Amino acid sequence: MEKEARADPNALLEGQAEIWLCIFRVVETMALKGAVELRIADITSSHARPITLSQIASDIGSPSLDLSSLARIMKLLVHMKVFDADSKSGCEETLYSLNASSKWLLHDNELSLAPFVSMIDPAPISTMNFLSQSVKEGGTAFQKAHSVEFWDFVSLDPEFRKNFCYSMEFSSRISMKAMLTKINRI
């Protein structure tokens, strides 16, 4: 490692940065899930124009909303290019708006990824803690995490089954529309 650092310190720093990004991508995933749960895209869309953080907070309607937490989530989502933000519009507050990515998070849209994002659930996520064990011992990580295979889990948990089926329905719509569009071009 020491010899590599002397040979190309920039490459080593870039490698370290990539590992840090991998470690913290889970934060991005959870911010995305939070945005779907809070219906931030739906709130922004309902105003039909860019809106302030205060307007988003007001429409969330929680009596104990933490505005600073919401601000941090919105900054991250803007950084991730999920929402757009304009702080130079002559307004004291930043204005948030939908973009091509956030439009996929609208709940009432025929082609929505919101149900799929909602599937970011403790059951599948906890499975990831068993990947190395499944490699060492065989079997699936899901079975090691939950003592049943995935499809058995789906049949045993009605709430998970409902969310899973709903997300698969929307995912199928998106795939089918893409295939039909491609076929119609031929």
Structure characterization notes:
This protein is mainly alpha-helical. Helices cover about 65% and strands about 5% of the residues. It has eleven helices and three strands, in the order αααβααββαααααα. The chain has helices spanning about 1-5, 10-40, 40-45, 55-60, 65-80, 115-120, 120-125, 130-135, 140-145, 150-155, 160-185, and strands at about 50, 85, 95. Strands 1-3-2 form a three-stranded antiparallel β-sheet. Strand 2 (about 85) and strand 3 form a beta hairpin. Helix 2 crosses helix 5. The longest helix has 30 residues, at about 10-40. The model has no long low-confidence stretch (mean pLDDT about 90). It comes from Rhododendron griersonianum. Pfam families: Dimerisation. InterPro entries: COMT-like, COMT_dimerisation, SAM-dependent_MTases_sf, WH-like_DNA-bd_sf, WH_DNA-bd_sf. GO terms for molecular function: methyltransferase activity; protein dimerization activity. This is O-methyltransferase dimerisation domain-containing protein.
